[in-house]
Amino acid sequence: MRTWPFALLLAACTACGVGPTDVIDAGEPARGFIQGTRLYFVQDDRLVSVGRPEGPLEAAEAVELLAGGPTSKESERSFVTRLPKNMAVRVNDDGFALDKSVSMLVGGRWLPPVSRLSRMATGQLVCTIAAATAAKRGVDVNDVRVTVPDRGQVRCEDFR
């Protein structure tokens, strides 16, 4: 009599009507919290998040890395920056401001201060600042609003 409940359980488990399927590709596995710092570069005219092992960093430190441009490996993968080389910027967790009083020596020439940024360059700064701030606060990058000169508060997703 003891085999009867086991046989019933076995029949229930094997006769559920679900047939075997092939493996379904669903993209990358979930990663959870990412250590390091996220910088935003441009690839194929769109903003792309790139991980760097440094960090987590403060927003100003992340922007310093961003201003240094992509590494040689990132450049090989077609990542570029739209930030001007003569850009002087003040950064905090809540936003950034261009320092319009600083001329910079670039390539042996003094260049006037940058007074405006392209939409893509602004997006690079906004998303990098938002990512650093989000990591520090333990929130999603799109939950962070960044103050942009002449535009007010924006989110990273506003540039995607």
Q: Determine the mean pLDDT.
A: 80
Characterize the largest beta sheet: strand count, sense, and whether it forms a barrel. 2 strands, antiparallel
Structural class category: alpha+beta
Biggest sheet, spatial arrangement of strands: 1-2
- Any low-confidence stretches, pLDDT <50, length ≥5? 27-33
Amount of helix: 25-40%
Into which percentage range does the β-strand content fall?
15-25%
- Rg over CA atoms: 24 Å
Please provide the ordered H/E string of secondary-structure elements.
HEEHHEEEEHEE
* Form type: globular
- Total strands: the figure is 8
The helix tally amounts to 4
Could you characterize what this model shows?
This protein is of the alpha+beta class and 160 residues long. It has helices at residues 3-14, 59-67, 72-76, 119-137; strands at residues 37-43, 46-52, 89-92, 95-98, 104-106, 109-111, 146-148, 152-154. The chain contains 4 helices and 8 strands. The strands form 4 sheets. A two-stranded antiparallel sheet has the order 1-2. A two-stranded antiparallel ribbon has the order 3-4. Strands 5-6 form a two-stranded antiparallel sheet. The radius of gyration is 24 Å and the shape is globular. Mean pLDDT is 80; it is low at 27-33. 28% of the residues lie in helices and 21% in strands.
